[in-house]
User: Fold this.
Amino acid sequence: MTHAGPSLEILLRRLAETPQDFLDAPRTGKSGQLHVSALIFDLSHQIGQPFTEAELRTLSGTDANGMTLCAIACWLLSDDTLQGRISKPRLLPFLGQTLQALAAEYKAERYLLDPERREELVRITLADLGLLPAGETAAQAQDRLQALSSTERRRIIAAAREAEKRAREIREALIKKAAAEAADKYTRE
Amino acid sequence: MSRDGIRPDERLFPLLSEAGRAMLARLCEHPAAPIYRNRSGHRLVAEDIPLLRDFTAEVLAARLGWHNAPDWLADFVTDAYQRVPGYRARGPVPARFTDIPTISRADLSRNITRFVPDDLPLDRLIEYSTSATTGHPLKLPSHPRIAASYLAFHRRALAHFGIELKASKGDVSVVLAGFQRRCFTYVSVTPLLDEAGLAKINLHPADWHHPDDRARYLDALAPELITGDPLSLSELAQLPMQHIPRALLSTSMAMSDGMRAQLQARFGCPVLDIYSMNEAGPIAVYLPEAGGHLLLQNRLYVETLLPDGCPAAPGERGEITLSGGFNFYLPLLRYRTGDWAELAMTPQGPLLRDFHGRPPVRFQTLAGQWLNNVDVSHCLAPFALPQYTLHQHADLGLTLRLRSTEQATAAREALLKLFGTGLRIEVAPLEAQDKVIQYTSELAPPLA
Assistant:
């Protein structure tokens, strides 16, 4: 479901103003200063749907660049305009798969400094949360995101391939089980 | 051993016990057994059983009814838009439920894979093919647990008649009776009822060593229930069997009041007319005292829509449109069934009145007055006609097709009274093997 969301401009400004602390080296083992998992945990409390330990663990497998991007996302998602609009089932895959895919494309800092990457990060965040930038239709938002984001384009191609594969598997499974009566029912139709 | 027929395949009965094996043998090897032509089985595994027991308890306890829409509907819609490719591709969920586009049999027929949720495993998928009276044959995805869930709704239907199933180990729970030249037949057991027996038989004499074996076999099995359609049950009524089942269940074709009365008189047990379809399972059961079909499923939302998509007004008939259902491989969102009825809320639950399995057809009387096919159904209801069709020609003349000539004169008289004395009414034999399109006219197209 897609709901009307906050203004794109407010979130772009917030991203551009990300405090330097969030770019400190993430803590892994004994090195680095920034405890990214603590930021994630705080965020989940802030939205009123705390992550379990198991859920937090699923987010800890990423590399340093991915962790930094995750820290930046925590800053972005704490904006007042997003309060009450974030749900855990949407947040988890965003912090996991989506940020990992973005981190594989560019250094985390580039999503702050380069205006196009900044817009890509904000738009992909809203799309994953099921929100539309204020004043845009679903089609406009999707067009703009696809034009900006190679990650989004790849995601669409992969999804289309996945859908084709799934359809083929369903067809094969149906053919394999094709029989006039495949399991007992008490009445016929 | 088995009397010429095919032996059951034990791989289709993962939980088979010695008692179950003995039941299969008894059903196949009885001296009067028919020649079984096929194999099927419940395909249930141990983990299915508690899930099915919980499901049955929920179905039996549920109270049905809603004001605007049931509580679960909004979440169901959101979930379907997320997990089902065919719905997801439409974009965001419309703000109002009534703005969600409807789908039809043609949509499912075009590409059924688009309606299967992404995240479900396919290893236990099974398939049901449906007949094509509407011109769109369908292959539908299902699962052994979905097939076994039918029983929960049949139990709910039987409870309305004060019947609670008793069959257990060593008993035969149900005989599914067909009456066709070719019919899929097999034996099975029901794990939910302690492996009570199930036999799907064909009453056509070609499937038996001797026609008299039919009554002998049914008396020997003494099934708690017999299910069928008006054609097979009317054949059943001709047999000299002594056994009285606790109920007869009829599906798949319309059953007239006259037919029901005749079966009730012959067997001395309730006759349940169940509105059921492969796309959604058992939907409603006819309750004579309520004057309509009472809904059976606690997670099925029913609307009645006009051809323009507007809801039918109270007291008006519309196309039965379904959302929800228990087939988790086929979540339905505003599925137009092609069947018509008036939806009414009653103290017993939502009720379908004047149900008819096709869009309305209008007929013209000799005096030029227009009649709805429901008027014709009411006119012919008192006669025990297992199946009939009525066609109006361009010159107003009628052709009534019947399975037997037994009540032809009386039925023709009733039609003359309705349409006007002097109208040409020809009575002809009905030779179709299965479902038919009951009402057709050269004068006016159906309303949808």
